[in-house]
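re the bet — no i am not wrong, look at it urself. input seq straight from the record:
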Amino acid sequence: MNRILFCITMVLLLAGLSFAGQRYTHDTLLVLKDAYAVNATAVAKVDGSDKTLHVGTGLIRADLVIDVSAIEIDSDNELYVVSIQGGDAADFSGDHVCLARLELGAASVLDGNVNSTVGRYVLPFVNEGQDVVYPYLRVRTEVSGTAATGINYTAFIGAN
């Protein structure tokens, strides 16, 4: 029995899983935002261009992995809402919805009493909303409050 448990543990570790949490394989094709500071509401960019990802017409369950490297909350009123949106057109000119959202910022503007910090945040989502499967995905950051330097993060899709 111990030998079987050992083998299962090794397979999970080799597959990139750990008992402390999920690890993700980094695929550059699944990056939805690269590292740069955001201090105003905007659609996420990769290499300086708005990034949209076509995931096809099937239902997917995945995680948006958000790695925050800097977050400004000096004025105690900064709020950063990172959302993953689904759309029916590559340029998001048609129907689009928020599939999931994460609020980061100063404790005074969050639903809680803890300031957000640098680190990894995982946002589970499906590409379906209101009984519609959306084939296009993008990340959007809403910024409010007195954000001078803002928030710096990367975001990519990891398998769930």
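see?? DSSP finds one helix and 15 strands in the chain. told u. also Residues 1-20 have pLDDT under 50 and may be disordered. so pay up
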